Amino acid sequence: MIKVKLCAGALLASLIPSLSHAEFLGYVGVQARAFPSTAVDPAQGSETLSGILAPEWYQQWNDGEDSFNIKAFFRYDSQDDERSHADIRELYWQHVGSNWELSVGINTIFWGATESQHLVDIINQTDAVEAPDGEDKLGQPMIHYASIQDWGVVDVFVLPGFRSRDFVGEEGRLRSIPITLSDKEQYQSDKEDEHIDYALRWSHYLGDWNVGLSWFQGTSRDPLYIPQITATDAYLAPYYALIEQSGLDLQYVSGDWLWKVEAIYRRGIGHSIAEDYAATTAGFEYTLTGINSLYWDLGLLLEYSYDSRPRLSAAPFQNDIFVGARLSLNDIASSELLFGYSQDADDQQSRNAFVEASTRLGDSTRITVEAYHFHSESNQDPIYSLRRDSYIELGLEYYY
Amino acid sequence: MSIKFLPTGILCLLFLCAANAATADSLENAQEKGLAIATEMKSRDRGWVDSSAEMEMVLHTRGGRETRREMRVLALEVQDDGDKSMTIFDSPNDVKGTAFLSFTHNNADDDQWLYLPALKRVKRIASKNKSGPFMGSEFSYEDLSSFEVEEYDYRWLRDEEVNGELCYVVEIIPRDKYSGYSREIVWIDQVHYRALKIEFYDRKESVLKTLTLSDYQLHLDKFWRPAKQTMVNERNGKSTEVFLRNYQFRSGLDEQDFTENSLKRAR
Question: Quick one: closest CA in B to A155, which residue?
Fold first, then answer.
């Protein structure tokens, strides 16, 4: 009896590590932003302090075939109540079969290849109060099935529930003038934010090539902005049209060169006020390795973006050249510097630039510095509202 | 010209020709022997199918400061081509969840991808990046990738003892134009064909780094793996130790565990 118990115990003990693997991780951070120029709207402040909490937890079982993942994000911002926000980035269960995966819940999905903007990437709403680069995304509820075959990966998405974009509040910087009011949102669909969207993607890797073809049907993540004038004030109301978007992303690697193309065609569905248009971003990243005796790497980026819409209604990248440089110090602190400069080819006075640098202090803390510069002199320019919002940001993040 | 000198001249010429032929002959022999040693070394290491191990890196600065890095490495043996491997980073905390996938190829550039968990993005990496330092250590990506016979030219130099073990000393010259080295000299023990020491040379023909592989352990009665590797940078005096623990072989990994999808969910 004792022997049996011992055996069972030993068996159980040996099984547990392979059955389950769990971890709690994430980071806490503080950020200070200062805007040296006087704001366009006197209601806007000129500096802000933020606290960030980004916990993450996952649990695997069934030898890793099943997992449960949670990732939350909280920001408290001293200047802007709208920028103080919480979001569930991930909360999903995933099952992995021999050549398929099924995920159910809230998740974040990235598609694409280029650096200056992400045209093809459409599953998640942008977390627009976070940063002007649009890299932060809100969690999207989804059922995601992926079939992994010799001829590529097919992803099928059912996206119930739409996440509308949150806009910076009255006191905040980096917003439209007049203000865009998140709660005045309008939808083309009668179902409003309960419209069910669908997406498909096929992606494949063939030697030096990576290719993706994608299709999306549903509520556009990018709203149109409808000017509203009342007796007392003026504002922009976000309007979410129904669209169909077809996308292509292509990447070719050859030695030190990485060539990238993204292209989309977007079409309004039904009686849409959204224009049909095509847009593309194409360019390369060229890496110089070991540029000095300390083995720094320098990546040079050049991308061109085109949007077929007239300038006023187009995205900021409608006929723009982007040049950038990524410097990796390859040191123990993983120090990195990224620089980017965008110039509008139609308007010499429309340009913006940024620098992002980060390094590790000790084992668990990262210090970041970010600076953005916006320049615009024409009110026809999509970045005109930001012309006085150049800023510098200092951040400290502790990872656990 | 005096006739007296002629026979001497011819003799010299004949002698030179003979010497040249002998050198060419011995060079060819040395190359064949070098290739044979490398081929034997690789063939003795065939059949492990798949492997996984925990890896700890200890980075030492010249001032004596220590930094630790932890990761897990998975590898899959591929027939008729280079192996596939995946590295999952566990520390430092800010890179936790970052994962690196590599397909080495015998006669083509390697394919490499990096998964960045903060952006949930898989990035393709240009093949040339292999010569750069790995995680700020004295190892480069190249030093940590699998050994493939087809990726080098060989020349046996001599036999020599290392720590009481008789070794073949073989010069290997990378064929890959993106390699960070002009040549390497490897000490391989004659009993088990294990690399015990490697010297890495730069383009200026001076020793850049020296790797010592020790604490070899036998797995599945066939495969020798070093539990400890020490890389010393001869230029700056820094060094990195790599400890590999908890080796598992033939645990059922397959092609599906080495895809962009599996890279995204590696934790």
Answer: B261
pTM, two decimal places: 0.88
Domain range for A75 is: 17-399
At B91, which CATH number? 2.50.20.10
pLDDT, tens digit only, all 400 positions of chain A: 444 444 444 444 444 444 468 999 999 999 999 999 999 999 999 999 999 999 999 999 998 899 999 999 999 999 999 999 999 999 999 999 989 999 999 999 999 999 999 999 999 999 999 999 999 999 999 999 999 999 999 999 999 999 999 999 999 999 999 999 999 999 999 999 999 999 999 999 998 999 999 999 999 999 999 999 999 889 999 999 999 999 999 999 998 899 999 999 999 998 878 889 999 999 999 999 889 888 899 999 999 999 998 876 667 778 999 999 999 999 999 999 999 999 999 889 999 999 999 999 999 999 999 999 999 998 888 889 999 999 999 999 999 9
Distances (CA, A) of A124 to A26, A90, A134, B168: 21, 11, 11, 58
Q: Is residue A161 part of a domain?
A: yes
| Domain assignment of residue A2, yes or no | no
Q: Considering the domain boundaries, does residue A10 fall inside one?
A: no
- Cβ contact B132–A290 (<8 Å): yes
**ipTM computed for the complex:** 0.89
Which residues of A are less than 8 Å from B96 in CB distance?
Answer: 25, 399
Of A96, A258, A364, the CB nearest to B124: A258
What CATH number should be reported for the domain holding residue A188? 2.40.160.100
Q: Do B94 and A253 touch (CB under 8 A)?
A: no
Burial class for B58, CB neighbours closer than 10 Å (0-12, 13-18, 19+): middle
State phi, psi for B94 to the nearest 5 degrees. Answer: -70, -15
* Residue A29 domain-assigned (yes or no): yes
- In a domain, residue B95? The reply is yes
**Chain B residues with CB inside 8 Å of A60's CB?**
267
Which chain B residue shows the shortest CA-CA distance from A285?
Answer: B126
CB pair distance less than 8 Å for B256 and A289: no
Nearest Cα neighbor of A163 from A138, A189, A132, A142 is A138
Q: Is residue B50 part of a domain?
A: yes
Q: Which H or E element spans position B240?
A: strand B239-249
Tell which residue, A68, A53, A78, A72, has the closest CA to residue A21. Answer: A68
Q: Which tokens belong to A105?
A: 């819940």
